[in-house]
Amino acid sequence: MPEYRSDLSLRPSEFQSSSSRQGRRFAEQCDDLLASYGFELRNRIVLPEIGVEIDQHAVSPLGNEVWFEYKGSIQGTRPGLKRTDTVKKAVANGALLGGLEVHPPYVVLASHLPDSGAGLAMLKVARDLGYISDVICVYDPAQVNRLRNL
Questions:
Q1: Which of 23, 88, 104, 143 measures 20 to 30 Å from 127, CA to CA?
Q2: H or E element at residue 84
Q3: Where are the domains of the chain?
């Protein structure tokens, strides 16, 4: 029987593999959540002209297109948007979308949000500048309810 080890004791290749699996599981959870709210899922899209990948292109029950980015995992010491480098990637993608003439709302679904500090400040500024339409913690029912407004 294999010996259990925490993520912190994994070799780099094992850690990457674990992170990839967790990311896929979180993406499945996000897809299931959106489907349960009546979104029509149209799959991932790549925008090579600006270097951005959108995790899910969806149409809301109200008929509105929405682009979703998923940031999350189920393990780790700083999952979701708790890491500033992860926040920076979401913000950068939102800013790069500004290079398109027109695009649907860009919403980030996260497993965890920053409580304070630089990550929280970056998200606030990105929303104020219109880079990100909304940031929703998928494990907070009050926040998830905002999906109904899209």
A1: 23
A2: helix 84-97
A3: 22-149
pLDDT in tens, 17-44: 556 677 789 999 999 999 999 999 999 9
CB count within 10 Å of CB 40 equals 13
Q: What is the CATH number of domain 22-149?
A: 3.40.1350.10
Q: Is the pTM higher than 0.70?
A: yes
Q: What is the pLDDT of residues 63-107, one digit of tens each?
A: 999 999 999 876 655 668 888 999 999 999 999 999 999 999 999
> Contact 125/99 with Cβ under 8 angstroms?
no
* Cα 25 to Cα 21: distance, rounded to the nearest angstrom: 6
